[in-house]
Design brief:
The complex is a heterodimer of chains A (about 110) and B (about 120). With about 110 residues, chain A is an all-beta fold. Chain A is about 0% helix and about 55% strand. Chain A has one domain: Immunoglobulins (Immunoglobulin-like, Sandwich). In chain A, a hairpin with a 4-residue loop joins strand 7 and strand 8. Chain B is mainly β and about 120 residues long. Chain B contains no helices and eleven strands. In chain B, strands 2, 4, 5, 6, 9, 10 and 11 form a seven-stranded mixed sheet that branches. Chain B is globular. At the A-B interface, strand 4, strand 5, strand 9 and strand 10 of A face strand 5, strand 9 and strand 10 of B.
């Protein structure tokens, strides 16, 4: 039972363009959402988060959008850089336990 | 200075053996976790300890036993290893039980366990 779904296992984007990573969730109790970035042979690192009382949160080149009615969130990276190439995990929580999606591998092509 | 460190980074062992993975955090966090990333790439929680007390114990075989000697350490001991235990195991820590308004977890770099 996947409560957090990232349906695109991979995404390729040209350097300088926008990267859009999508995430859907099914649990209505989730009220806080996070994005993690993971490089090979490293642990996931926190990128950006959003509370369910907001619909947008921005941090530099990274923006997360939340559509509660659709139970959907997305991460926008503008402009994309080769160093952004990594696996991005969407995570959600309604308590103190994070539930992760399977991740989307982003490749930014120079 | 690594915030959450796991040892070993790689572990290859035979079926039936008993092995331990160690985790230490120097962030002063009071909650620590073990996650398993299987071949399908899912990150699934296994255990969580808050102030050395077990608070999450997901459906994990009894062969897996976490031990938290103090707030800064959460070790994972696995008995009678099976082929299906092969995965990457991540340790993580956080401050408090609530994640709202925090940066979520700080993860270690993972331990790749291969059972042959």
């Amino acid at each position: 039972d996947q409560q957090v779904k990232q349906n695109s296992p991979s995404l390729s984007v040209q350097e300088g363009r926008i990267s859009i990573l999508n995430c859907d969730y099914t649990n209505s109790m989730f009220d806080y959402f996070l994005w993690y970035k993971k490089y090979p042979a490293e642990g996931p690192t926190f990128l950006i988060s959003i509370s369910s009382i907001k619909d947008k949160n921005e941090d530099g080149r990274f923006t997360v959008f939340l559509n509660k009615s659709a139970k959907h969130l997305s991460l926008h990276i503008v402009p994309s850089q080769p160093g952004d190439s990594a696996v991005y995990f969407c995570a959600a929580t309604g308590s103190y336990q994070l539930t992760f999606g399977k991740g989307t591998k982003l490749s930014v092509i120079p | 200075d690594t915030a959450v460190s796991q040892t070993p980074k790689y572990l290859v062992t035979q079926m039936g053996n008993d092995k331990s993975i160690k985790c230490e955090q120097n962030l002063g966090h009071d909650t620590m976790y073990w996650y398993k990333q299987d071949s399908k790439k899912f990150l699934k929680i296994m255990f969580s300890y808050n102030n050395k007390e077990l608070i999450i114990n997901e459906t994990v075989p009894n062969r897996f036993s976490p031990k938290s000697p103090d707030k800064a350490h959460l070790n994972l001991h696995i008995n009678s290893l099976e082929l299906g235990d092969s995965a990457v195991y991540f340790c993580a820590s956080s401050q408090g039980l609530g994640l709202t308004g925090t940066y979520g977890y700080t993860f270690g770099s993972g331990t790749r366990l291969t059972v042959v």
